[in-house]
Design brief:
This protein has about 45 residues and is an all-beta fold. Helices cover about 0% and strands about 25% of the residues.
């Protein structure tokens, strides 16, 4: 079972889950489902 955040650690808004990614629609915070740390992931547009 993968654990996931329910609230954004930056703005405390609810996170939405899209596959293995969780997104805050208010501030744009992104994180992977099941990660232990609260660091957001980096999306590269190369």
């Amino acid at each position: 079972m993968m654990h996931q955040l329910t609230r954004c650690p930056k703005c405390k808004s609810r996170l939405r889950r899209y596959g293995l990614i969780q997104v805050c629609i208010r501030c744009g915070y992104l994180t992977r489902v099941g990660t232990v740390n609260l660091d957001s992931i980096i999306v590269s547009c190369d």
